[in-house]
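Example S7 (structure tokens).
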């Protein structure tokens, strides 16, 4: 819009022509667009001033949760790293053979804590149990020049491979230093390898008592009530042993050790279960890496059982390198049976 001013130009002009902006757009469409743009700007400014609407609250909560999740994961990763380093260092120190080591060093390298004995009886349910679960204990007892007797209560004929598994049992035991004449395999119709078959405690107890009396064993080793893998045949051996303890038929010079069942997480931690074992167990055996390979090789001699999940078991299971055992007596058995 052109507006004429009456002011006099100092150079002689009578008027000065100025351009003044018009408050109203020249067309209705332009005016409507400007109004719409102004309303959008107002809404945007209002959202910036008050961002905590329903969507804004969710975004804030999500951002805070994501932040704390990242921090928590970082802390967990650091804790796991520190724990892994601790386990590796502790394991290396335990088997470090420094000449003239300090008293602290000698205490720390104590890789086993078992009652002294010269004759031990190991009772298992099936061929391969002696290596799959008790391998570290057998190697440690043989290292101490203890004579180890193995009593296997069935020939493992569940898959009709009894003859093959019998030979595998002998081969595996001999590879760990057990004499062939010290292995006893029971092939009884009422003690067959079958998870659904009930093994009577009285039948097993008679077998155990006969062996204990004839061998004059100073140490009896078998499963605990959970049976490590939950197999009912394993648990049946414990209850038979418990019945002998309750009746006082275990010889006074014979101690009873049961292999501890651990949870699934600890079961597959290998050497990373070392701190928990040392803190929670009273009797334990921890093998060197070289001895661990000896147990693995003995397990591979049970070739008929080498399915894919047992190959993974050989690699990751703590029972290939660590055994933790608990000594039981009459009072312990009474408490466990009442608890059961």
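Recovered sequence:
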């Amino acid at each position: 819009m052109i507006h004429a001013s009456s002011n006099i130009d100092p150079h002689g002009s009578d008027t000065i022509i100025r351009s003044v902006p018009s408050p109203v757009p020249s067309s209705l469409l332009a005016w409507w667009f400007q109004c719409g743009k102004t309303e959008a700007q107002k809404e945007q400014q209002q959202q910036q001033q008050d961002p905590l609407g329903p969507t804004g609250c969710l975004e804030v909560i999500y951002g805070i949760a994501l932040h704390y999740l990242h921090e928590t994961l970082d802390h967990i990763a650091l804790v796991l790293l520190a724990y892994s380093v601790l386990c590796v260092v502790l394991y290396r120190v335990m088997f470090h053979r420094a000449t003239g080591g300090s008293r602290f060093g000698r205490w720390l390298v104590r890789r086993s804590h078992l009652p002294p004995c010269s004759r031990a009886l190991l009772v298992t349910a099936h061929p391969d149990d002696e290596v799959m679960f008790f391998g570290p204990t057998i190697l440690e007892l043989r290292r101490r020049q203890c004579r180890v007797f193995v009593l296997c209560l069935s020939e493992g004929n569940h898959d009709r491979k009894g003859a093959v598994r019998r030979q595998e049992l002998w081969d595996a035991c001999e590879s760990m230093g057990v004499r062939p004449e010290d292995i006893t395999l029971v092939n009884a119709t009422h003690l067959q390898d079958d998870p659904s078959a009930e093994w009577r405690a009285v039948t097993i107890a008679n077998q155990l008592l006969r062996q204990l009396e004839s061998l004059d064993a100073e140490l009896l080793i078998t499963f605990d009530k959970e049976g490590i893998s939950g197999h009912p045949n394993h648990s049946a051996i414990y209850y038979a042993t418990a019945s002998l303890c309750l009746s006082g038929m275990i010889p006074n010079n014979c101690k009873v050790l049961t292999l501890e069942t651990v949870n699934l997480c600890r079961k597959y931690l290998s050497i990373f279960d070392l701190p928990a074992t040392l803190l929670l167990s009273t009797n334990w055996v921890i093998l060197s890496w070289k001895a661990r390979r000896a147990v693995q090789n003995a397990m591979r001699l049970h070739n008929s059982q080498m399915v894919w999940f047992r190959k993974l078991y050989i690699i990751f299971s703590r029972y290939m390198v660590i055994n933790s055992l608990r000594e039981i007596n009459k009072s312990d058995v009474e408490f466990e049976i009442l608890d059961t």
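Notes on this example. Strands lie at 2-5, 16-19, 112-113, 119-124, 147-152, 183-185, 219-223, 255-259, 283-286, 322-328.
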